[in-house]
Fold this protein.
Amino acid sequence: MRFLKVLFLCATALAQTPRGAKGAFDKATLEAYVRRIELFRGDVQIAIDDPVPSKYLPGFSEVGVHLSSGGSSKDEVYYVSQDGQTVIQGDPGNITVFNINKNPFQANLDKLFTDGQPSFGPANAPVTIVEFGDLQCPSCKAEAPALRQLLPQFYADKVRVVFKDFPLESIHPWARAASVAGRCIFHQNAQTFWKFYDWMYDTQEQITPDTLNAKVLEWAGKNGLDNVQLGRCIETKATDAEVAKNIAEGRALGVHGTPRLFINGRGIGGVDFEVLKELIEIELNSQPKPR
């Protein structure tokens, strides 16, 4: 099992209680945050002891944390400051800091730019899934039905999906050209891009580097696009700089293969729909509750 090195517990969330009432350190809040980050499922039981004065860190209390699942168990010790704001586990020289009032994956969100990208679902959806994908990637093709068909059935008003190009040119010879064409289509008609996305995966095995552009233009002509404008955009690679920007963004986020999803900032590789649902439910359950 993996555990947090340090949690920074914001006073506004944990310490707004009068003296003599419930302490600043809140067991339920700590447990929920740990479960979210570490993806501990319901079968992982977490028991948290009451704080006792620490013999090793002045001004801190020790809190025993006991984990159990499937007959195995593990005990951890957290060091909690008197005001309940700071919790340390493990070697203080090797720490990670989280603010419990913020998304634990905020560092990834700060590197993700979704404006001007193909998307579907409500702009204000509580969960945003950003896919870094490759239109020649067989694994992306396998995952596409979960994003395009199942998500709208189960989470039509709760999830927004954003697509960002990450063609793997070293192994997929026509992937970048397909990304350029897709961006050209997106700029001509944003909604038609998703028809193109579906069609590309449906016909992926029939496409070669030599036939890609002709097939794209034939398809575009049947879907109401201006082929003269599209052909010029493809020929001049007018959108290649946008593709390059997406690739650079993906690399800054540690993307090496596709599909790579970021679910409210949490990076994860390709998953089946049941796992995807579970991750979405975790994010929905982590949303601030109305007062």
